Amino acid sequence: MTTIAHETAPLTRRKRRWEGLPYWLILPTVVYLGLFFVWPMIQSFGLALRDESGWSITAFKTMVNDPAFGEAMGFTFLLIAVVVPLQFFLALGMALLLNAKLRFGGIFLYIFLLPLAISDLAAGIVWSAIFTERGYLNTILEGVGVLDQPHIWLDPTNKTQLVIAVAAAEIWRSTTFMMVILFAGLQGIPRDYGEAAEVFGAGFFRRVRHVILPMLKPSIQVALLLRLIFAFEVFAVVIAITGRGATVLAAEAYRWQATNMNEHVAAAYSVVILGLSLAAAAVVLVVLRTPRERRLR
Amino acid sequence: MSNEDEGNRLSWDEPVDRRTALAAAGGVGAALALGGLAGASRATAGPSQNVGTVTAFFNQYQTVDAQNAIRNVILKNFNGKVEPIFAATAGSFIDRLRAEARAGKGNIDVVVGLHGDFVTLQNERLIRGIGDVARDIKSLSPPLVTTGKLGTKTQFYVPHSQATYIMVANKEVLPLLPKGANIDALTYGQVFAWAKAIRKKTGQNRFGLPASDTGLIHRFFQGFLVPSFTGGFVTEFRSKRAEQAWDYMRQLWEYTHPQALTYSFMQDALLSEEVLLGWDHVARLNVGLERRPDDLVAFPVPRGPAARSYMPVVVGLGIPSQNPPNLAGAKALIKYLTTIRSQAQVPASLGFFPVVSGKLSRSLGPGLLAEAAAIRKQQRAPDASQALLPVGIGAEGGNFNNVYRDTFTRIVRNGENIKTVLKEQGDKLQAIFDKTGAPCWAPDPPSGKARCRVK
Description:
The complex is a heterodimer of chains A (297) and B (455). Chain A is mainly α and 297 residues long. Chain A is built from 12 helices and 2 strands, in the order αββααααααααααα. The model of chain A is unreliable at 1-5 (pLDDT under 50). With 455 residues, chain B is of the alpha/beta class. Chain B is 39% helix and 12% strand. In chain B, strand 1 (53-58), helix 2 (64-74) and strand 2 form a beta-alpha-beta unit. In chain B, helix 8 crosses helix 9, helix 9 packs across helix 16 (397-413) and helix 16 (397-413) runs antiparallel to helix 17. The termini of chain B are far apart.
């Protein structure tokens, strides 16, 4: 009896000490986030809602009345509408390909990962060298006789072509990002489920549709969530390829800060970007939510 | 570059020749005082004692070639270590100096910026008087040194280099010049006819302007197009002549390369022959003219109904007001950069032109000589008129540029009504002057101490 009493006392004390530990462990992260994310965010709200004389919505008025605002908003959404769905299916295909554990499949992973290692501005410059009038694309097309004279792909009066050019660069650059998340999710799905479905005669597409996709939902949610948030921040690729021919919200925020030196309007843009990202995140979280009881594990 | 090939010989040491001297106008529109150069060629290369580490903060010379030249050529013989920092944008340049002033602790010893930057810096008391440095510098032309006083009695910066904007064409399109046109004295009408003829011949729009975010097209509107038509760029912003100018721009855009909105440096488009006729800052045309001197030709900007307006650019050297860590070093560096020897390295290294008077050495590259010749013709044209960079509007400089860029976007790209746009943008322009109280500057008629008014 006495031995037990002796043993339990230090145990509870130890237990109590451990209870606080998780909070201590996340403290550095909380401090870091607070200092470098939350505080600047509050500051940018403050900047957006002030001008030299005090509180005001002048910055938002200036932003909305700026001729580039509507254009930036439109192009950002258009780009998201084109890029994100395409990317999703491509990323899923790539992830399934890797997951099929083909021979030399690892090589695909390295090839897919290459664009991730390149900065987005560098990617934009590479693609602008492809699409510019004296660029690689025209040289090749002329070389094989498809074109008689160079075609101008980056023509600001032709928005479709601009979207295609930017979308091509964006898809090349960041599809792997989604793929990595989906691939990780796929690896968490036990093979037995697929094999069981196969026994019951389900073909590849039926297995993807009815087994893999539902089980992959949490990963899809994360992938879409992050991708959408990044999509609202797209910037360097658009600037490098289209110059002033098209503009997006983040590019306008940068332009107001760096070129026009008006931090209030720049902050107003960043508030809009934040709002849109939050809204998009909320939509993804609601639409793709997985009830607790249906989660794997 | 040629400086290094020549060893000890200065490329700037030939006797002064009034006719061939590069008449530099500087920020005040005064021609350079000539003379005094021949005797000064034995100027010392720098301080005799090592002055330690000097941090220089640049808002100019941002191309990779220029940055390398600063490190490896211009600063090579300085008796001390120089830590050059290049600001990514005009905004980050001012921001850093502001932040250092607010923190009460600075790392910057020498500031290298445009005349207009110094106006802003002086407004915000971010730079100190450097009269003692200027007094010791004998090599520079007095009128240019005076510009560094920013209209006060105190010397705030010492000029380091100068530049302007010119036009360049591919020789292939010279036969398409309108009949009777003299390439050295074109009119805006003739440039338009030329661009049109080029399209007719080549089937493609081959006129070019640097219209990307990092291009300088707003300077074209401010210093060239609008004042050439109206004679001013603020007061006459809404005038009938201004309407004509923007109507002209709208029509010219029809013959402008669609990718102009992606151009930052016209030399790239001229080298790739996407563009056969273009306008830009000399430092952004230099590589093109240097590489293909036999194919490209440089010439003065056109004249409009009012004048042949052009914008001179002056780069200066100053010292922050906020305790620079190495004040003695900063002063030594400024003196070193304004010696004849150092100035002689400016053209070939930076693509800008020196601020000491004299004759450009023929050993310089063909591009620089071609640019110098075009600048000379431009400055000496009887109808030449200078439009200066904004003075006294301080931090509103960005908004000021934006007024012109937005006017362009709305009228030319979106096809809005010219009168309406000029009225609305004119209000925005006026708001800048109401806020800053800045008086008019050349070429607008002086408004004394009163703020400038858009008519």
